[in-house]
Write a structure and sequence with these properties.
This protein is α/β, with parallel strands linked by helices. The strands form two sheets. It has an eight-stranded mixed beta sheet with strand order 6-7-8-3-9-10-12-11, sandwiched between helices. Strand 4 and strand 5 form a beta hairpin. Helix 4 packs across helix 5, helix 5 crosses helix 7 and helix 7 packs parallel to helix 8. The radius of gyration is 21 Å and the shape is globular.
Length: 338
């Protein structure tokens, strides 16, 4: 994979929101790459900057949001520097997005077919009859029954799972090279969730498409991702391939997230939880942003912010106390073996 050129390369991305109360550093120096045909998972609690990262790539920030530094290189072009007309050509065509709330993202006064056809007519320059055929074909591909009938229905006439499938059909109607999926299964029950993830994997294979999967659910990450970026308080704290992350996390936050997953293979009297909450973005703590919730924090953590360092081939971590975490893992394993 690394021998290929990245499809997308994000360098030192900083996206700030200038509010009446002060500057919110929602994304503060993020770096990652996405290669053709792979899935990068971006994981973290609500408010860590995952969605703002995706909206920055598409330049869909509101008037208070601004990319203040960094590059977003897509196929050799820096999206930060493109004018709005050029960005419109890329949005929906080369880079598409599935939003987390289909009832909000779909327009209630237009049929599902009209909304899919709009992107096809705009980007593929085809006649309305041809666009309708493509829309019906896309609805069929995403597993919606009776697509010839559903194409003329309104969003409220579809179930939650069908609306999400319609959103995927809309996003993929122009065969994008990169799909950004922002919590695409959050509001769905587990059986529908599994179907949607399976569908995305199949469509990715068929279209040779890269995916950025944004979620707080590590189960989804394990199911679909090749590599994972863990975000906390606008920063990336760990970045590696999915197997290594689950087998040997090196950041206390990643380790805590994995420990918080309920397990069926051992008896648990109490579920593990991370103490405290994600800090207010207007008042992030000094030093390492996670130090207020970290059991391994030292004076250095409180005063100096760690950079993202490559500790082994392809495994990046931002932490001063990796050795302390390793010692704690050993203690836990010894305790379990008893």
């Amino acid at each position: 994979m690394e021998s290929k050129q990245p499809l997308l390369k994000v360098n030192n991305l900083k996206t700030y929101f200038f509010t009446d109360d002060g500057v919110v550093k929602a994304v503060d120096g993020v770096n990652f790459e996405v290669y053709p045909g792979e899935t990068l998972g971006i994981v973290g609690e609500s408010g860590c900057g995952k969605s703002v990262t995706s909206l920055s790539i598409l330049r869909l920030l509101d008037e208070k949001g601004k990319i203040v530094d960094g590059e977003i290189i897509f196929e050799g072009k820096d999206l930060v520097k493109l004018d709005e007309n050029k960005m419109r050509e890329i949005r929906g065509n080369d880079i598409a997005m599935i939003f987390q709330e289909p009832m909000v993202a779909l327009n209630p006064v237009y049929t599902v077919g009209d909304q899919i056809m709009e992107a096809i007519i705009l980007h593929q320059k085809v006649h309305k009859d041809e666009a309708r055929k493509i829309a019906i074909d896309m609805l069929r591909k995403v597993g919606i029954p009776e697509p010839e009938k559903r194409v003329d229905e309104y969003p409220h006439e579809l179930s939650g799972g069908m609306r999400q499938r319609a959103m995927i059909a809309m996003a993929l109607s122009c065969h994008p090279k990169l799909l950004i999926a922002d919590e695409p299964t959050t509001a769905l029950d587990v059986t529908i969730q599994a179907q949607i993830l399976e569908l995305m994997k199949q469509l990715q294979k068929d279209l040779d498409m890269a995916i950025i999967m944004i979620t707080h659910d590590l189960g989804v990450i394990a199911e679909i991702s090749d590599r994972v970026a863990v975000m906390y308080a606008g920063k990336m704290v760990e970045y590696t391939d999915v197997k290594r992350l689950f087998k040997n996390p090196k950041h206390p936050y990643t380790w805590a997230l994995l420990n918080a997953i309920p397990r069926l293979d051992i008896e648990q009297e109490r579920l593990f939880s991370i103490p405290g909450v994600v800090p207010d973005a207007l008042h992030f703590p000094s030093g390492c942003k996670f130090h207020t919730r970290c059991e391994f924090a030292t004076e250095k953590c409180r005063n100096e912010e760690p950079g993202l360092i490559e500790i082994e081939d392809g495994h990046f971590v931002a932490c001063w106390n990796i050795e302390k975490l390793e010692a704690a893992k050993d203690r836990v394993e010894v305790g379990e073996n008893k």
